[in-house]
Amino acid sequence: MTPNAEIKKIVEEVGQDIIWRPLYDFERNKLSGGVGHDIDGIDPEFTELDFTGKTVCDLGCNLGHFTFYAHERGAKEVVGYDMEPKVIKGAKKLAALYNIEGVEFETCNFASEPATRTFDMGMLIDILGKINISNGFLIPILKGLESRSKSEMLLTFRPLYLVKRHFGMSEDEFLKLYPQAQIKNGFFSLLDFAQNFFAKKWKVTYLSKELPDDEQYKRTVHFIRKA
Ligand SMILES: C[S@@+](CC[C@H](N)C(=O)[O-])C[C@H]1O[C@@H](n2cnc3c(N)ncnc32)[C@H](O)[C@@H]1O
Protein backbone atom coordinates (compact mmCIF):
# COMPACT_ATOMS: atom_id res chain seq x y z
CA MET A 1 0.00 0.00 0.00
CA THR A 2 1.29 3.51 -0.78
CA PRO A 3 1.87 5.93 2.15
CA ASN A 4 -1.02 8.09 0.90
CA ALA A 5 -3.35 5.08 0.83
CA GLU A 6 -2.23 4.22 4.37
CA ILE A 7 -3.17 7.67 5.67
CA LYS A 8 -6.53 7.37 3.91
CA LYS A 9 -7.05 4.02 5.64
CA ILE A 10 -6.23 5.59 9.03
CA VAL A 11 -8.95 8.20 8.42
CA GLU A 12 -11.46 5.45 7.54
CA GLU A 13 -10.55 3.35 10.57
CA VAL A 14 -10.68 6.24 13.05
CA GLY A 15 -13.72 7.98 11.53
CA GLN A 16 -13.85 11.65 10.45
CA ASP A 17 -16.32 12.48 13.24
CA ILE A 18 -13.64 12.08 15.94
CA ILE A 19 -10.64 13.48 14.05
CA TRP A 20 -10.10 16.92 15.57
CA ARG A 21 -7.69 18.66 13.21
CA PRO A 22 -7.41 18.63 9.41
CA LEU A 23 -5.34 15.75 8.08
CA TYR A 24 -3.51 15.76 4.74
CA ASP A 25 -1.75 13.12 2.70
CA PHE A 26 1.80 13.50 1.43
CA GLU A 27 0.58 15.43 -1.62
CA ARG A 28 -1.29 17.93 0.59
CA ASN A 29 -4.70 16.53 -0.32
CA LYS A 30 -7.04 17.09 2.60
CA LEU A 31 -8.32 13.70 3.80
CA SER A 32 -10.24 14.91 6.80
CA GLY A 33 -11.56 18.40 7.60
CA GLY A 34 -11.13 18.12 11.38
CA VAL A 35 -14.15 18.81 13.59
CA GLY A 36 -12.37 21.32 15.88
CA HIS A 37 -11.97 25.08 15.50
CA ASP A 38 -8.42 25.99 14.47
CA ILE A 39 -8.56 28.95 16.75
CA ASP A 40 -9.10 26.67 19.77
CA GLY A 41 -5.58 25.31 19.36
CA ILE A 42 -2.38 27.09 20.33
CA ASP A 43 -2.46 30.65 18.95
CA PRO A 44 -0.49 30.80 15.72
CA GLU A 45 1.19 34.03 16.84
CA PHE A 46 2.47 32.36 19.97
CA THR A 47 5.92 31.70 18.61
CA GLU A 48 7.84 32.64 21.75
CA LEU A 49 6.95 29.37 23.40
CA ASP A 50 10.10 27.31 23.66
CA PHE A 51 9.84 23.56 23.20
CA THR A 52 13.55 23.02 22.50
CA GLY A 53 15.05 19.98 24.22
CA LYS A 54 12.02 19.50 26.48
CA THR A 55 10.02 16.42 27.32
CA VAL A 56 6.35 17.11 26.67
CA CYS A 57 3.08 15.29 27.22
CA ASP A 58 0.04 16.09 25.09
CA LEU A 59 -3.06 15.21 27.12
CA GLY A 60 -6.05 14.36 24.93
CA CYS A 61 -3.81 14.22 21.87
CA ASN A 62 -6.37 12.81 19.40
CA LEU A 63 -4.42 11.98 16.18
CA GLY A 64 -1.39 13.83 17.54
CA HIS A 65 -1.68 17.21 15.82
CA PHE A 66 -0.04 19.08 18.72
CA THR A 67 2.16 16.12 19.65
CA PHE A 68 3.78 16.41 16.21
CA TYR A 69 3.74 20.22 16.54
CA ALA A 70 5.75 20.11 19.79
CA HIS A 71 8.19 17.69 18.17
CA GLU A 72 8.58 19.97 15.12
CA ARG A 73 9.23 22.89 17.45
CA GLY A 74 12.20 21.03 18.93
CA ALA A 75 10.87 18.98 21.84
CA LYS A 76 13.20 16.10 22.69
CA GLU A 77 10.48 13.61 23.48
CA VAL A 78 6.71 13.92 23.25
CA VAL A 79 4.10 11.46 24.54
CA GLY A 80 0.50 11.83 23.42
CA TYR A 81 -2.21 10.35 25.65
CA ASP A 82 -5.83 9.79 24.68
CA MET A 83 -8.54 7.60 26.17
CA GLU A 84 -9.88 6.65 22.73
CA PRO A 85 -7.94 3.58 21.53
CA LYS A 86 -8.88 4.19 17.88
CA VAL A 87 -7.14 7.57 17.76
CA ILE A 88 -4.06 6.24 19.56
CA LYS A 89 -3.80 3.41 17.03
CA GLY A 90 -4.11 5.95 14.19
CA ALA A 91 -1.60 8.36 15.76
CA LYS A 92 0.97 5.54 16.13
CA LYS A 93 0.53 4.64 12.47
CA LEU A 94 0.93 8.29 11.46
CA ALA A 95 4.17 8.62 13.48
CA ALA A 96 5.53 5.54 11.68
CA LEU A 97 4.47 6.88 8.27
CA TYR A 98 6.02 10.29 9.00
CA ASN A 99 9.13 8.41 10.16
CA ILE A 100 9.26 10.43 13.36
CA GLU A 101 11.35 9.37 16.33
CA GLY A 102 10.91 10.79 19.80
CA VAL A 103 7.12 10.68 19.65
CA GLU A 104 5.00 8.03 21.39
CA PHE A 105 1.31 7.50 21.94
CA GLU A 106 -0.51 5.70 24.75
CA THR A 107 -4.12 4.97 25.54
CA CYS A 108 -4.85 6.53 28.93
CA ASN A 109 -7.56 8.48 30.70
CA PHE A 110 -5.30 11.12 32.24
CA ALA A 111 -8.12 12.45 34.46
CA SER A 112 -8.69 9.15 36.25
CA GLU A 113 -5.45 7.19 35.87
CA PRO A 114 -2.43 8.10 38.01
CA ALA A 115 0.62 9.55 36.24
CA THR A 116 3.23 6.95 35.33
CA ARG A 117 5.82 9.61 34.45
CA THR A 118 6.34 13.36 34.47
CA PHE A 119 7.37 15.79 31.71
CA ASP A 120 9.00 19.22 31.50
CA MET A 121 5.81 20.54 29.90
CA GLY A 122 2.23 19.31 30.04
CA MET A 123 -0.12 20.38 27.26
CA LEU A 124 -3.91 20.46 27.55
CA ILE A 125 -5.13 21.78 24.24
CA ASP A 126 -8.85 22.20 23.62
CA ILE A 127 -9.89 19.68 26.28
CA LEU A 128 -11.73 21.84 28.80
CA GLY A 129 -15.16 22.69 27.46
CA LYS A 130 -18.87 22.63 28.25
CA ILE A 131 -19.18 18.84 28.35
CA ASN A 132 -16.18 18.06 30.53
CA ILE A 133 -16.99 20.90 32.92
CA SER A 134 -20.70 20.10 33.28
CA ASN A 135 -19.89 16.42 33.80
CA GLY A 136 -17.75 17.35 36.82
CA PHE A 137 -14.39 16.54 35.22
CA LEU A 138 -12.78 19.99 35.56
CA ILE A 139 -10.78 19.27 38.72
CA PRO A 140 -9.70 15.71 37.79
CA ILE A 141 -8.50 17.10 34.43
CA LEU A 142 -6.52 19.95 36.04
CA LYS A 143 -5.03 17.49 38.56
CA GLY A 144 -4.19 15.04 35.77
CA LEU A 145 -2.29 17.82 34.00
CA GLU A 146 -0.49 19.07 37.11
CA SER A 147 0.58 15.58 38.19
CA ARG A 148 2.37 15.07 34.86
CA SER A 149 3.97 18.54 34.53
CA LYS A 150 7.33 19.35 36.14
CA SER A 151 7.97 22.96 35.05
CA GLU A 152 5.38 24.22 32.56
CA MET A 153 1.76 23.76 31.61
CA LEU A 154 0.21 24.97 28.37
CA LEU A 155 -3.57 25.09 28.17
CA THR A 156 -6.23 26.41 25.87
CA PHE A 157 -9.69 27.10 27.22
CA ARG A 158 -12.48 29.57 26.99
CA PRO A 159 -12.03 32.12 29.80
CA LEU A 160 -15.69 32.86 30.55
CA TYR A 161 -18.90 30.80 30.62
CA LEU A 162 -22.53 31.56 31.36
CA VAL A 163 -23.51 28.90 33.87
CA LYS A 164 -27.14 28.39 32.86
CA ARG A 165 -26.71 28.75 29.12
CA HIS A 166 -23.48 26.83 28.64
CA PHE A 167 -23.69 24.15 31.32
CA GLY A 168 -27.48 23.73 31.31
CA MET A 169 -27.71 23.85 35.10
CA SER A 170 -28.67 26.29 37.84
CA GLU A 171 -26.03 28.24 39.72
CA ASP A 172 -26.76 26.14 42.84
CA GLU A 173 -26.25 22.90 40.92
CA PHE A 174 -22.98 24.23 39.52
CA LEU A 175 -21.77 25.26 42.99
CA LYS A 176 -22.60 21.80 44.33
CA LEU A 177 -20.31 20.38 41.65
CA TYR A 178 -17.61 23.02 42.22
CA PRO A 179 -17.99 24.57 45.70
CA GLN A 180 -14.86 26.66 45.24
CA ALA A 181 -16.20 28.30 42.03
CA GLN A 182 -17.29 31.92 41.97
CA ILE A 183 -20.22 33.08 39.86
CA LYS A 184 -20.68 36.77 39.09
CA ASN A 185 -23.76 38.00 37.20
CA GLY A 186 -24.33 34.47 35.93
CA PHE A 187 -20.76 34.12 34.63
CA PHE A 188 -18.17 31.58 35.72
CA SER A 189 -14.59 32.62 34.98
CA LEU A 190 -12.63 29.49 34.15
CA LEU A 191 -9.55 31.67 33.85
CA ASP A 192 -9.89 32.84 37.50
CA PHE A 193 -10.72 29.30 38.60
CA ALA A 194 -7.64 27.80 36.93
CA GLN A 195 -5.40 30.61 38.21
CA ASN A 196 -6.68 30.12 41.78
CA PHE A 197 -6.47 26.35 41.50
CA PHE A 198 -2.78 26.53 40.55
CA ALA A 199 -1.92 29.75 42.45
CA LYS A 200 0.16 28.16 45.24
CA LYS A 201 2.66 26.45 42.97
CA TRP A 202 2.27 28.07 39.55
CA LYS A 203 2.53 31.50 38.00
CA VAL A 204 0.55 32.43 34.89
CA THR A 205 2.95 33.81 32.35
CA TYR A 206 0.96 34.16 29.18
CA LEU A 207 -2.51 34.90 28.04
CA SER A 208 -3.49 35.23 24.38
CA LYS A 209 -4.19 38.63 23.01
CA GLU A 210 -7.77 39.60 22.51
CA LEU A 211 -9.27 38.06 19.44
CA PRO A 212 -12.13 39.60 17.49
CA ASP A 213 -15.45 38.07 18.45
CA ASP A 214 -13.48 35.94 20.87
CA GLU A 215 -15.98 35.18 23.57
CA GLN A 216 -16.74 31.76 22.15
CA TYR A 217 -13.15 30.74 21.44
CA LYS A 218 -10.45 29.22 23.56
CA ARG A 219 -7.31 31.09 24.50
CA THR A 220 -3.79 30.08 25.35
CA VAL A 221 -2.64 30.15 28.96
CA HIS A 222 0.86 29.21 30.08
CA PHE A 223 1.85 28.37 33.64
CA ILE A 224 5.38 28.15 35.02
CA ARG A 225 6.12 26.38 38.29
CA LYS A 226 7.24 28.76 41.03
CA ALA A 227 10.79 28.30 42.27
C1 LIG B 1 -11.45 18.28 21.59
S1 LIG B 1 -10.35 16.99 21.17
C2 LIG B 1 -8.82 17.88 21.22
C3 LIG B 1 -7.69 17.12 20.63
C4 LIG B 1 -6.34 17.83 20.60
N1 LIG B 1 -5.87 18.21 21.90
C5 LIG B 1 -6.35 18.99 19.66
O1 LIG B 1 -6.50 20.13 20.13
O2 LIG B 1 -6.24 18.76 18.46
C6 LIG B 1 -10.36 16.10 22.71
C7 LIG B 1 -9.57 14.80 22.73
O3 LIG B 1 -9.25 14.52 24.08
C8 LIG B 1 -9.60 13.21 24.40
N2 LIG B 1 -9.91 13.20 25.85
C9 LIG B 1 -10.87 13.95 26.48
N3 LIG B 1 -10.84 13.70 27.80
C10 LIG B 1 -9.83 12.81 28.00
C11 LIG B 1 -9.29 12.17 29.16
N4 LIG B 1 -9.79 12.39 30.37
N5 LIG B 1 -8.26 11.31 29.02
C12 LIG B 1 -7.74 11.06 27.77
N6 LIG B 1 -8.21 11.63 26.65
C13 LIG B 1 -9.23 12.50 26.76
C14 LIG B 1 -10.72 12.83 23.46
O4 LIG B 1 -10.79 11.42 23.26
C15 LIG B 1 -10.35 13.61 22.20
O5 LIG B 1 -9.53 12.85 21.34
From TrEMBL:
Alphabetical GO biological process terms: methylation
Q: Where is the Methyltransferase domain?
A: 53-128
- Gene3D superfamilies in UniProt: Vaccinia Virus protein VP39
Q: Which GO terms describe its cellular component?
A: ribosome
Q: Does the keyword Transcription regulation apply?
A: no
Give the range the annotation lists for the signal sequence.
none
Q: Which UniProt keywords apply?
A: Methyltransferase, Ribonucleoprotein, Ribosomal protein, Transferase
Q: Does the keyword Ribosomal protein apply?
A: yes
Protein name (database record): Ribosomal protein L11 methyltransferase
Source species: Maridesulfovibrio ferrireducens
